[in-house]
Write a structure and sequence with these properties.
Blueprint lengths: L7 E6 L5 H17 L5 E6 L5 H5 L5 E3 L4 H5 L11 E6 L5 E5 L11 E5 L3 E6 L5 H18 L5 E6 L7 H11 L24 E4 L5 E5 L12 E5 L4 E6 L5 H5 L1 H11 L7 E6 L5 H4 L40 H7 L8 E8 L2 E4 L7 E3 L3 E10 L2 E10 L5 H17 L5 E6 L5 H5 L5 E4 L16 E6 L7 E5 L11 E5 L4 E5 L5 H14 L4 E5 L5 H6 L22 E6 L6 E5 L12 E5 L4 E5 L5 H5 L1 H10 L11 E5 L5 H4 L14 H7 L17 E3 L2 E3 L38 H8 L3 H6 L2 H11 L3
Parallel strand pairs: 1-2, 3-5, 7-8, 12-13, 16-20, 18-19, 20-22, 24-25, 29-30
Antiparallel strand pairs: 2-13, 4-5, 4-6, 6-7, 9-10, 9-11, 11-12, 14-15, 14-17, 17-18, 19-30, 21-22, 21-23, 23-24, 26-27, 26-28, 28-29, 31-32
Family: Belongs to the villin/gelsolin family.
GO molecular function, one term: actin filament binding
Protein name: Villin like
């Protein structure tokens, strides 16, 4: 958070650990927390229910071993081959492998199993497992080979639906497991699914007696520095907050109090528990609150920026010219560029697109729906944003037609546009900017040339903004109660227009108010200062009355750290898996991802995401907002982003974004969607193993017949290469250790690179 270092302490509880062991672990955590000054964020992790952050530490997966201290604390011998175990592998993003009975009875068609016999590891892929799970299991098998066997074990892969294609590997499996009697069991559902978002949250405090303080939506002012609090999401998560001025005893007992609370509530022992100190709150905790302001957070929209999860950037004056050079700035300000691109506007008329007269650009009527296509340049290439503006009084048919026509426009540009749903009154900043201070929102009526809008008499418009990039005029009820001392208003009557300046508005707001009034009305304007209104002004508003007259600092949306979720609606209920400490690599091509930046919701759709999840993406985002514990605004802008067409307002939330990551040809994409089995893991790989009455033997623990000495491959002409080596695929004959040493990345990461980058690396390594 900012420049302050954050510390996380995780303690892990095995399923068969004793109460004494669990208690001792909690004591050690408390002592370590005190030693580190009470600032760490404490996490209680339970086997099988670990947090995304904990699982994220183990990129190749978690292995749950049988036994206790002996297996958990002894060092790993890397040259021991007297091993026989069967690992049940589960998970797409965070993999876990659990030791199960070495028997065909442990298998099922939906998961992946690793038969580890020391000198060989056989991966059996259930027919119903998917590409991502297979790849993750391969990486886990490689990790076992490299860490536990010194890179000397052989790996083979069997596709459970095509076992006949791997006769040698099946011979090994049969020798170990015996002959299989009958078919493998059908796929079984996971014991636990990812936690559904729980919009019911309660706040408690108290020492001997725990008392309820409030229910959702929570506000930050409920937390007093002299107390400790428990935030309970109906048992799905329990979080403890320790105030800075709470007594030492209270702070020390915070974790034990949370564990006692879980027991008293009869919550499952696997319930997530987190303990945090004031000033060190997690993003998840802050998201439980309707508003949150960190100490030292600046005020005043558009003047300074703060980067949240991105590495700290010194505060500076907002400069649109820096948006492309500094995507984190673009993300923070929700601005892809300086709004100088081309704009085309269509209105939905008779369910078809009708181009809007350019002279009326910026005028939006509440009875209509519009499509706005914005075109701009980035790195010499044209980029597109397609805004779908929905009037508050538009018909259901018009809203449906707007979405349908958006698909047609999207197809016309080969899926390149970023699609943004805009609900009337919730226009994002960039939408305001592209109309250069001339955006006017009429409450009702229509902009159609043939339509005649009824004469409404006096009309009142609220003008907000500091410059032409942030200004809009919104029609409000022509009543005194609509006025606000902090804003500029234009009151338009048949004979005269009044420009009303509230006492709390700034000089910049008055300037843009004057400019907007010239767009709204060609009549002469009578400037009216708050408190000096003529009688005619109040008559036009139906009489003088009370209105918002409290001066306040300009309100800024609270800065929340962004959160990334993998979304799924496949169980019939919206579920999500949070990706902690996310990077670009977490955007998987087979997934639909939701990035919540608080002011906006991004839906990122990978090129290989299934049609069902893509179709349901909009509904999923709306469900996420609806069920959010902080009672989020359901009209928060939802931005639809496709892989390879990410705007800087999206990429700026990621550190070190690589714009070429997905720049691959169709042939490359086809190669990547084939079997995830890596080159040196072909099912047909020959295993140099001998079967005897005593079991399985290997003549050596060294070279398996697949890998070659790098000296035989580097800087050799095709005629000098060993027989059977494809000159264009020399890297396929390297061990994983040699591969990483020569090419600087793992085999899996290398295969994700575009072809030109792979070729460049191979040339530098002498492998081309």
């Amino acid at each position: 958070q900012g420049s302050r270092q954050s510390i996380d302490i995780h303690y892990w509880i095995g399923n068969t650990s004793s109460q004494d062991e669990q208690g001792a672990a909690a004591i050690y955590v408390t002592q370590l927390d005190e030693y580190l000054g009470g600032s760490p964020l404490q996490h209680r992790e339970v086997q099988g229910y670990e947090s995304p952050r904990f699982r994220g530490y183990f990129k190749n997966g978690l292995i749950y071993k049988k036994g206790g201290v002996a297996s958990g604390f002894h060092h790993v011998d890397t040259n021991v081959y007297n091993i026989l175990r069967l690992l049940h592998v589960k998970g797409r993003k965070h993999v876990t492998a659990t030791e199960v009975e070495v028997s065909w009875n442990s298998f099922n068609n939906g998961d992946i199993f690793l038969l580890d016999i020391g000198k060989a590891i056989v991966q059996w892929n259930g027919p119903q497992s998917n590409r991502r799970e297979k790849l993750k299991a391969v990486l886990l098998a490689q990790d076992i080979r490299d860490r536990e066997r010194g890179g000397r074990a052989q790996i083979g892969v069997v596709e459970g639906g095509d076992e006949k294609d791997s006769p040698e590997l099946m011979k090994i499996m049969t020798a170990v497991l015996g002959q299989r009697n009958g078919p493998v069991r059908e796929a079984t559902p996971d014991d636990r699914s990812d936690q559904a978002q729980n919009n019911n949250v309660r706040l408690y405090h108290g020492n001997l007696v725990v008392q309820e303080v409030a229910t959702e939506p929570l506000t930050q002012d409920l937390l007093r520095s002299s107390d400790c609090y428990i935030a309970d999401q109906r048992g799905s998560s329990v979080m403890v907050w320790k105030g800075k001025q709470a007594s030492k005893e209270e702070r020390r007992e915070a974790l034990n109090r949370a564990l006692g609370y879980i027991k008293a509530k009869n919550y499952p022992s696997s319930t997530s528990v987190k303990v945090m100190s004031e000033g060190g709150e997690s993003a998840m905790f802050k998201h439980l609150f309707k508003s949150w302001r960190d100490k030292g957070q600046t005020q005043g929209l558009g003047t300074t920026y703060n980067v949240g999860k991105i590495a700290k950037v010194d505060q500076t004056k907002f400069d649109v010219m820096q948006l492309h050079a500094r995507p984190e700035l673009a993300a923070q300000h929700r601005m892809v560029d300086d709004a100088s691109g081309d704009v085309t506007v269509w209105r939905i008329e008779n369910l078809e697109l009708a181009e809007v007269n350019r002279r009326t650009y910026g005028q939006f009527y509440g009875g209509d729906c519009y499509l706005v296509l914005y075109t701009y340049q980035r790195s010499g290439q044209q980029q597109y944003i397609l805004y779908m503006w929905q009037g508050r009084h538009a018909t259901t048919d018009e809203i449906t037609a707007c979405a349908y026509q958006a698909v047609n426009v999207d197809n016309k540009y080969n899926g390149a546009p970023v699609q943004v749903r805009v609900v009337m009154g919730k226009e994002p900043r960039h939408f305001l900017a592209i109309f250069k201070g001339k955006l006017i929102i009429f409450e009702g009526g229509t902009g159609r040339a043939s339509a005649v809008n009824p004469d409404k008499g006096a009309r009142l418009f609220q003008v907000r903004g500091n410059d032409e990039l942030s200004t809009k005029a919104t029609e409000v009820q022509a009543r005194a109660s609509s006025l606000n001392t902090n804003d500029v208003f234009l009151l338009k009557t048949d004979h005269v227009s009044y420009l009303w300046y509230g006492k709390g508005c700034s000089g910049d707001e008055r300037v843009v108010g004057r400019a907007m009034s010239d767009v709204l009305s060609k009549q002469d304007k009578q400037v009216v200062m708050e408190g000096q209104e003529p009688a005619e002004f109040w008559v036009a508003l139906g009489g003088k009355g009370p209105y918002a007259s409290d001066k306040r600092m300009q309100r800024e949306e609270p800065l929340h750290s962004p959160r990334l979720f993998e979304c799924s609606n496949q169980t019939g209920r919206f579920r999500m898996t949070e990706v902690d400490d996310f990077t670009q690599d977490d955007l998987d091509e087979e997934d639909v991802m939701l990035l919540d930046t608080w002011e906006e919701i991004f839906l990122w759709v990978g090129n290989l995401a299934n049609q069902y999840e893509t179709k349901e993406a909009w509904n999923s985002a709306q469900e996420y907002l609806r069920t959010h514990p902080a009672r989020r605004d359901p009209d928060t802008p939802i931005i639809f982003v496709k892989e390879g067409h990410e705007p800087p307002t999206f990429t700026g939330w990621f550190n070190a974004w690589d714009p070429h990551k997905w720049s691959v040809s169709e042939s490359d994409l086809s190669e990547r969607t084939q079997s995830p089995v890596l080159m040196n893991l072909s099912p047909s790989s020959r295993f140099n193993l001998t079967f005897t009455d005593g079991g399985i033997k290997s003549p050596s623990a060294g070279y398996s017949g697949k890998f070659l000495d790098p000296e035989l491959l580097i800087n050799k002409s095709p005629s000098e290469l060993p027989q059977g080596v494809d000159p264009s695929q020399r890297e396929a004959h390297l061990s994983d250790v040699d591969f990483e040493n020569l090419l600087g990345s793992s085999r899996a990461d290398f295969l994700r690179l575009p072809k030109w980058r792979q070729t460049d690396l191979k040339k530098k390594a002498g492998l081309f």
